[in-house]
Amino acid sequence: MKIAAVTDDGMTICQHFGRAPLYVVVTVEDGKVVSKETRPKAGHHTFALEETHTEEPGQPHGYDAASQSKHAAMATNIADCQVLLAGGMGWGAYESLQSYKIEAVVTDVVGIDEAVAAYLDGSLPNLFDRLH
């Protein structure tokens, strides 16, 4: 199993999926962490020069074609992962990740190692109230 966490610094979970520049990918075998690697992540910094407001009036944020394309770009580097840990994200991104068979878990746990351990022992709640 591979668990990805969005991060700014390689140690802590970023508070927003779209803003993080990196992933830390943790490989777990037989319930134990066997490796970690850092991967680049597309995000708001990548798309800064692109038009970002393509939603139709009344359409929820993150569901328009442009947003879905951005979510796909952000998921590319973790296509081999089963889980993503983030401090927050939009509903559009959350549901896009589900469509790629990636379980998104929104958490208030700050440390990546601590969050991974809590996920593995089943004690990491998914804080849906942090979705926007």
Q: Which descriptors would you attach to this protein?
A:
132 residues, Nucleotidyltransferase, domain 5, five-stranded mixed beta sheet, 3 helices
Describe the structure.
The protein has 132 residues and is an alpha/beta fold. The chain has helices at 65-76, 91-99, 112-120, and strands spanning 2-7, 22-29, 32-40, 83-86, 103-106. Strands 3-2-1-4-5 form a 5-stranded mixed beta sheet. β2 (22-29) and β3 (32-40) form a beta hairpin.
Write the layout of secondary structure elements.
Elements: E1 2-7, E2 22-29, E3 32-40, H1 65-76, E4 83-86, H2 91-99, E5 103-106, H3 112-120
Parallel strand pairs: 1-4, 4-5
Antiparallel strand pairs: 1-2, 2-3
Specify the CATH class: Alpha Beta
The CATH architecture name reads 2-Layer Sandwich
CATH topology grouping: Nucleotidyltransferase, domain 5
Could you tell me the strand content as a percent range?
A: 15-25%
Strand order of the largest sheet: 3-2-1-4-5
Write the CATH homologous superfamily. Answer: Dinitrogenase iron-molybdenum cofactor biosynthesis domain
Oligomerization state of this entry? single chain
The total count of helices amounts to 3
Helix content: 10-25%
Give the H and E element order: EEEHEHEH
In angstroms, what separates the terminal alpha carbons?
28 Å
Secondary structure: number of strands? 5
Mean pLDDT over all positions: 88
Q: Strand count, sense and closure of the main sheet?
A: 5 strands, mixed
Rg measurement, Å: 14 Å
Indicate the overall shape. Answer: globular
Structural class category:
alpha/beta
Low-confidence stretches are: none
Count of distinct structural domains: 1
